[in-house]
Amino acid sequence: MTIGQRIRDLRTKQGISLTELANRAGVAKSYISSVERGIQLNPSIQFLNKISTSLNVSIDRLIHEPMDKSESLDIDDEWLELAKEAAESGISKEQFKQFLEFQKWQRAKQD
C-alpha cells in the first residue's frame, strides 16, 4: 500500500472529505488528490506532517505498512493502564527504561 492509499484509507475511515482534509491541513486539495491517486509519489515531510496532524496519526503510520496482526504484540488493557499510571505518577521514560534494565540485570545475575 502506498502513502497515498494509506492517506485515503485513513481519511475515508474517519469520514473526512478531500476538501475537509485540505482545509484542515492547509494544503491544496488537488495535491492531496494527486498523492492519493499515486501521481505524486514522494510528498515532502512538511506535507506528511500536516496530513498526519489533521488525521490524528503519526507520520510513521502514513509511511509504513501497519503491522500484520500476527506480528503485533498483544498488549492487554492492564498493561496499558500500568503504563498510564506510571506516566501519571511522574515516572519518566528514562527512569522506566532504567528500571527494566535493572530487572534484566538481576535476572541475568540469578541465572
Keywords:
mainly alpha; 434 Repressor (Amino-terminal Domain); 0% strand
What can you tell me about this protein's structure?
The chain has about 110 residues and is mainly α. The chain folds into 2 domains: about 5-65, 434 Repressor (Amino-terminal Domain); about 75-110, no CATH class. About 65% of the residues lie in helices and about 0% in strands. It has 7 helices and no strands. Helix 2 crosses helix 4 (about 45-55). The longest helix is centred in the C-terminal third of the chain and has 18 residues, at about 95-110. The protein is elongated. It starts with a helix and ends with a helix.
SSE layout:
Blueprint: H1 3-13, H2 18-25, H3 29-36, H4 45-55, H5 59-63, H6 77-88, H7 93-110
Helix pairs in contact: 1-3, 2-4
GO cellular component, one term: cytosol
Keywords: DNA-binding
Domain HTH cro/C1-type: 7-62
Form type: elongated
Low-pLDDT segments: none
The count of domains is 2
Mean pLDDT: 86
Oligomeric state, counting identical vs distinct chains? single chain
